[in-house]
Specification:
The structure holds two protein chains of two kinds. Chain A contains eight helices and no strands. Chain A is mainly alpha-helical. Chain A has a domain of 146 residues. In chain A, helix 6 packs across helix 7. By secondary structure, chain B is an all-alpha fold. Chain B has two domains: 86 residues, Rna Polymerase Sigma Factor, Chain: A, CATH 1.10.1740; 65 residues, Orthogonal Bundle (Arc Repressor Mutant, subunit A), CATH 1.10.10. Chain B contains ten helices and no strands. Chains A and B meet through helix 1, helix 3 and helix 4 of A and helix 1, helix 4, helix 5 and helix 6 of B.
């Protein structure tokens, strides 16, 4: 087939298309996150002291840093689906933000926590449940971001997939933060990081195989 | 405001490249392309036909400098199809040139990958000789790319993929086992693909 006949085929019966809108896509992700959080809270699993979050630096740090990371990572992921996007800088920024959030945990460590045994503070038995919960809560967001990625045209699908995974992991961790009963920043840093990293790795591995421009 | 900042984080190319991109876009992509694409997104077939025609010429020049002559038409058509399937992703706030260049570069990488996996056809002795310009430019680009590889990898790729020797013949010339030659070709092509993917678009 010559180029001319291909062009004739493509331009005949051309239908209007709905232009991609980052605002609309961001709204979809936000809505899904809100629904997930709402359903989660309706089940009655929210921490009883969440209403007094303003008086607890630890809760403010946990919810605030995860919320900020989720918003930033979602914006970066959605923007990375454009063909002209260069997601590398955005990924570095999100990583730096995550490191800053982790370091922020040093300032909200409760008195006496550092005197406890390390294994006692990390509490692997509960931590695995937390990381798994974050992973499960992230799945709807991963699916939605994957669908948006498929409809768009990322030219660096691996990096876009990684950004999607980080965004979904941060969203899942943010939702889970409302019910997690543990108050040790070290526990949060270790198991939330593992949960988010697992989501990011799964998205990085799984999404690019399904999406090619 | 934060969204603008994040947008710059995502989209901004390497320092100094922004001015190059503007200059390159103005040199290569006509100003009318944006309005033609907007009309095409609204379902205007005539505008779309004209746009694809002009894009086709631009893409032919683009791929002639990067691919063997026999691969150019395939790459152009693959890119036109990708443009058609993804035309809703074009944002009229931005120039169309970089958008098209990003898609074309992706298709170029795809073509290189398919070339690497395709068995070599025997070249007939009485092949017709045409214009050498595209071949000269391609060989110049290839030489500069091969310079970035380890000598053993570059030599293996040159002998087997460019000059058409079999792996056994190449292993005899290089003095390595056939499996080592295959390994060098595989790793070398992988490295070349990675280099090309990281290279900013150039016209």
């Amino acid at each position: 087939m010559s180029n001319e006949s291909l062009i004739a085929d493509l331009s005949s019966d051309l239908a209007p298309v709905q232009r991609r809108s980052m605002l609309r896509e961001g709204g979809l992700v936000f809505a899904l996150g809100a629904v997930e959080l709402g359903l989660f809270l309706v089940l009655g699993v929210m921490r009883p002291d969440m209403h007094h979050m303003g008086s607890s630096p630890f809760l403010m740090w946990r919810v605030g840093s995860l919320g900020l990371l989720a918003v930033v990572a979602c914006v970066l992921a959605i923007q990375s689906y454009s063909p002209t996007a260069q997601p590398r800088r955005g990924l570095m920024f999100a990583s730096a933000l995550a490191v800053a959030a982790i370091l922020g945990g040093v300032f909200v460590t409760p008195d006496g926590a550092s005197e406890r045994a390390l294994l006692d503070r990390i509490n692997p038995a509960s931590g695995i449940v937390c990381a798994t919960s974050i992973f499960v809560l992230s799945l709807p967001i991963v699916a939605l971001l994957g669908a948006l990625m498929r409809r768009a045209a990322p030219t660096q699908p691996r990096r876009s997939a990684l950004a999607s995974g980080i965004a979904a992991g941060a969203c899942g961790a943010f939702v889970f933060a409302f019910c997690c009963p543990f108050n040790d920043p070290l526990y949060v840093v270790v198991w939330y990081t593992i949960g988010c990293a697992a989501v990011a790795a799964a998205a990085r591995w799984g999404l690019p195989h399904r999406f090619r421009l | 405001m934060r969204s603008d900042f994040l947008s710059r984080l995502i989209s901004k190319p390497a320092p100094g490249a922004a001015a190059d991109n503007r200059e390159r876009s103005s040199r290569t992509a006509p100003d009318g392309w944006n309005s033609l694409m907007v009309a095409a997104q609204n379902g205007h077939g005539g505008a779309y036909r004209r746009l694809l025609g002009e894009m086709s010429e631009w893409l032919t020049r683009y791929f002639q400098r990067r691919l063997p002559p026999g691969e150019v038409d395939d790459a152009v058509q693959e890119t036109l199809l990708a443009v058609h399937r993804r035309r809703h992703t074009y944002d009229p706030q931005y120039p169309l040139g970089p958008w098209l260049a990003a898609i074309a570069k992706n298709k170029w990488v795809d073509q290189l990958r398919s070339l690497a996996h395709r068995p070599m056809d025997e070249i007939p002795d009485d092949i017709a000789v045409g214009d050498h310009e595209a071949s000269v430019v391609s060989s110049s680009v290839l030489a500069s790319l091969l310079d970035t590889l380890r000598p053993a990898q570059a030599q293996a790729i040159l002998l087997v993929k460019v000059q058409g020797y079999s792996v056994e013949e190449a292993s005899g010339q290089i003095g390595l086992s056939p499996s080592a030659v295959k390994m060098n070709i595989h790793r070398g092509l992988g490295r070349l693909t990675a280099i090309i993917e990281k290279t900013p678009d150039v016209e």
